Predict the 3D structure of the following.
Amino acid sequence: MANTEKTRGGFGAWLLDPKRRGALLVTPAITILFVMNIFPLMWSFGLSFFNYKASSLKEPKFKGFNNYEKVLTDEKVWERFQTTAIIVSSSVIMQLIIGFLMAMIFAKVFPLRRIVLMLVLTPMMLSFVSVGVFFKLFYEPTFGIVSFVLNFFTEERFVLLGSPEGAILGIVIADAWMWSPFVMLLVLAGLVSIPKYLYEAAEIDRASKWRTFWTITFPYIKSLLLLAVLFRTIETFKLFDVVYIITDGGPGSSTETIAVFLYRTAFQFFKTSQSSALAYIVLFIVIVLTNLYLYSVNQRQEEVE
Amino acid sequence: MARNHREIGKAGWGYTAMTSVIGFIYFFPVLWIILTAFKTRTDALAVPPKLFFTPTLDNFTSVFYRASITTGSSQATDMGLYFFNSIFIAGTSVGLALIVGTLAAYAFSRFPLRGNDTYLFIILTTRMMPPIVVIIPIFLMFRLSGLAGTYWGIILLYTAFNIPFSVWLIKSFFDELNPEIEDAARMDGSTESRVFFGFCIPQILAGLSATFVFGLILTWNEFLFALLLTGVETRTVPVAMARTLGGEVGVDYGLLAAIVTLFLIPIFFVTFLLQNQLLRGVTFGTVKK
Amino acid sequence: MTIELKKLTKRFGTLTAVDSVDLTVGDGEVLCLLGPSGCGKTTTLRMVAGLELASEGEVYLGGKNVSDQTARDRNVAMSFQFYALYPSLTVAENLAFPLYGEGLSKTEVDARVARISNTLQLSGILNRKPGQLAEGEKQRVAVGRSIIRDPTCFLFDEPLSRLDVQLREEMRGEIKLVLQDLSRPTVIVTHDQLEALTMADRIAVMRDGKIEQVDTPHNVFQRPKNLFVAGFIGTPQMNLLPATLTASNGASAEFAITGGQTIKMEVDPRISENSPGTKVTLGVRPRNLEISNEPTPDGISSTIDIVEPMGAETLAHLSDGQHDLRLVTDWRVPLNEGDKVHTRFLPGTTHIFTADEQVMRTP
């Protein structure tokens, strides 16, 4: 057997040997990730245990869990968590519902579908900075369109960003506007891969629309929906640019998300180590959250089987 | 007697009208931005907001030619270079992530290891950290290794950003494929690479396109790392945009809108091209033998 | 309950996929639509099902004009080429799926599922999902799902095309048994003539959207109406030799085969109605050729090119200089490549086709 293996191409065959194949294919990705992401992560994790200030030239002193303590006992931190939680959950839920509905709508072939789809995808294509700057303008009581339109009904200048609730709403709308097309595209890519003959079989079997949906459509897009929720949650947790530009965390600090707070801690107050500690706490929370998602989905899958 | 073709999955103009309304709602803010690009400074900040105005191309010229304060004549800005940089950097990193990610996704899907879920999850966690936190180590890393300001540095970094999503998304598509067709091909004597390129890849083109589009959008608009890690030669457009914000007389909405509009075009174009893959409608099933 | 198709036509843009098809399938009859890829057989089937609506013409099910109704309202049962099993449901749930529209009680549904799974030997895999089934099992579930109902007719789209040869043989017999129990008209689409020949009561051979011949399997084989059917039915393919009628006199005629050889054979006397010089095509099946030691007037000389042993028979490829012939004979006949032999056309087995491809006379 060794002879035939050799004649089939030596090193190449050794590389593609089924036992090694999986590992080989995965290596490039893992290497890049490790160097660019994991290594820096470990570095900054290390930093969080020292007393390191980027501004001073003092030698960093080992402080153990001191930083973590300080962060966890800080009331302001918990407030920020709460704010972030509200923004994340509202925005993700909105994106999920709207994105899903839109995907169902765009799954059908209709005239001018391409053009309309491009219109819907444009919000995603803007940068956070642009969205931030212009939405701030839209929300502006004097110059903004929102106020202008509502003026017709209320005879008053509409101030959205003046109240904490309004400010949060403003941010959530901007974020959901930008990213519901993301959910839509993801679900759409799944809908598109459903074989037509399954629907034909259902038609022949005279299945109701609802049954057709549950039996054929939903199973195909379940995994994609999860993916969408997963990634949007993670990304929204990191939301910085939009918040910073539209409300700057205000009014007061009612819309200061964790990411904005981190920024302030690290670069305005120069508490580098503390912000590292906080960041790792955030990381921990997000890890727990995503594990919950994945776990609950796997659970449900096992129930079905 | 002509008959109406009522196929499953098709709809008519009434449907188009309804979806157009949705499309318009989404597009309106973007439309406003584009309109603003054609407005003069006063028009942009008019009270009440103006829908109709006399358009001007000043903003667009300002993007490429800035009147120099000192010499009094126009000076070409480097915006052209920045556009090129953005296209090159984003395109390359997303492309790399796609290739590397597809290989890894294939492995995760077809040759699952015992720790599969753990590896996948770790890959996912690399996306979870707010950039602020890793910025310092990465900055130092880049400085020390001489990667700061180079194309390769930022490209590698962006590739790393795009890998998690690519791997997860593409894996989910590989999971949906019917392995029997591949086995049939293997029995027919196809080599592994032919099975991969001839069968698997064509079937997941929709997923690959979606991944490419998303990756492109994310990378295209990335600001923070670009700010710190690109040099004068490799600067991308978002960084250049931010520099106009710190302007003398407050935000020049018109100029910003012009940059945004121009910056939108390449992405718009790429997405439009890839639409074909994303919009097949419900498919006709697997490839017929 | 019958199926009637009247002048059924289907156009896709400028392409006419099905061209004015007239067909009747009787109660309990099994009809096969047979033909090469692209001949319109699947489109015709889908029009019977209601998955495509006809551009022209009508479909009648049980005497009722259903041409304007879609599949949902026609109450037909169909088994798809790719099985179309619902991936998220178990085999039992797949089988039960069609019954939900009929308002049956749960016990009724379970009873029917049990009955069908017994008939098709699915009892052991009722709890598996399609993804875990072997090809043959999937095929049986697909068939089961269509026969669990009581529809107006049964439609099968290439039911065996995805099975390997051995499975195909098994399933052919099984399906034939199952079909015999059903008392509804059944239409099967296939491109495999062996399937058609074994399973059908009648075969409709199609080409380019038209029906070339509708007849029993025996007749389609023995009495092909034109060149296309003759060449399509029968493996190995019938030998088709272009020739010219040189002389005819009563019961025998002489033909000059292009390439120089002449052959003389007994024919139906009506052949003499054609004048000498008429171009024809001679069709003779491989098993109706015989190797003879001596040259005979009713044979031609040829050289053996390739010999393919097939077990109980041997297939020989011969060449007469211009044409390739296929000959099948008993395995014991000695054949060697390169031999020059005389090939005799067995009397009364040659088909003669006129230039416009219609059968002039069959022996």
